[in-house]
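Researcher: Go.
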Amino acid sequence: MQRRQFIQTSSIALSTSPWLGNAWAQGSMPHNMAAMPGMAGMHSGAAAATALAPVEAMAAGAPLAELKKLVNTSRQPGVFRATLRAAPVSLAVMKDGTPTEFWAYNNSLPGPLIEVMEGDTVEIEFINALPQPSTIHWHGLPVPPAQDGNPQDAVPAGGRRVYRFKLPLNCAGTYWYHPHPHGFTAEQVYRGLAGLFIVRTKNDPLKGIPERHLVCSDLKLGADGHIAANDMNDEMNGREGQFALVNAQRQPVLTFDAGGRERWRIWNANSARYLRLSLPGATFTLVGTDGGLLAKPVTGLTELLMTAAERMEVIVEAPMGGGKVGLVTAPVERGKMGEVPPESPITLLDVDFSAVQPERLAALPKLPGTLRRIQPLGAVKAKKRVVFSEEMSMAGGVHSMKFLVNGQNFNMQRVDFTSRINEVELWEIANESDMDHPFHIHGVQFQVVERELDGQVTPEPLLAWRDMVNTRSGEIVRVKLVQRHKGLRMFHCHILEHENAGMMGQVNVI
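Model: Structure:
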């Protein structure tokens, strides 16, 4: 297998600055796919390829739906209390009315939006009405390990538990939640289990701008309307369905605010698909990453590159002339292996600017020059090195593949690292595999320090809080982080098929 270098174009090049030709691109991390317990190899559990429904089988062009909100049943100030029930639900998403069985939170696709304030206490009763064990992982949120839905704390089928945590100040941002039971995460997410979480602050400098929520996901349906099982390519490269959706809709229409400016929170809730977003004729102003607002806006971006599980906040202003423009995601070369069909750009939604009033657009005030203060993390007290790698085998005439962390498959009984609470650590993530891998660590936001490729070290130009970073083949990414809670934390590749197959480790914080 030849090592693959990330394709560079005039508009995007991850090996140098995150911006090149006015594009924003996020970093990455290596990881390896190991056989699941009881499987001889990665492909032994994969299904044969299924005849898929044509993309046209799902209707397009409906108005963009607003996210359903989870209702707070508490009457106490500063307490958010609600119930999330994971259960099968039958929905007709194809034009001919053929029903599809999904697994959903509170019968909602995507799962309901939780909105809270910094400092709030959150109490969520989780009811597992699935035929499998499950958890709720609060992706990116600074919650104690015992409340973070680790695979060690799986809720059995038919069981329930209460997650309770208090959010600290200065954690406003765009987060999400999804299952995390080892060996079942990928299936539960691709069947529909994922929801959204926003933490707000009283001092939001962008509060007055109309806000949109765009949840990008995909869906792989067989011709009979059933959710297709993973085939060998899915297990190897990560699952990408033929239906690319926004808010569980195919190519909906977003009617832009008459004032000419909107704030978009974008979630990449795909299992594996990277997004390379553009809005022809318009530019993006990046104002936030996974862990909230930047120190100052980054203007004039023509593209946004988002790894699986990443979130961004951007300001969009209507182009002069109005009309309808498609929000497009272009193919991303991330080192897929095997026989992969050619990929083409996909229009995720259409933005209708016809309601924009030119006089209001011309009178828009400037955005604030400062959004918040971000302090660089200080002197490093400890270092960790994570190596993502892969192994291929034809032993016994059977093709198998393993994705590994530091040469090992995930073992729930093994602790890979030990960290001390409140100490600044430098984590070095080295991708020695042939594919891109998005790195995620639970319970903390980190700061990317620098990237190294072919011996060239490039300092990270943007100081930001993140919990996702992409690492290309042959690249080393260095990040600083601080653990604020004692207990066991997971770190892994967020291509869910790779995580499922064992590309994951554990750090114990003492």
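Model: Helices lie at 185-190, 232-237, 358-362, 496-500.
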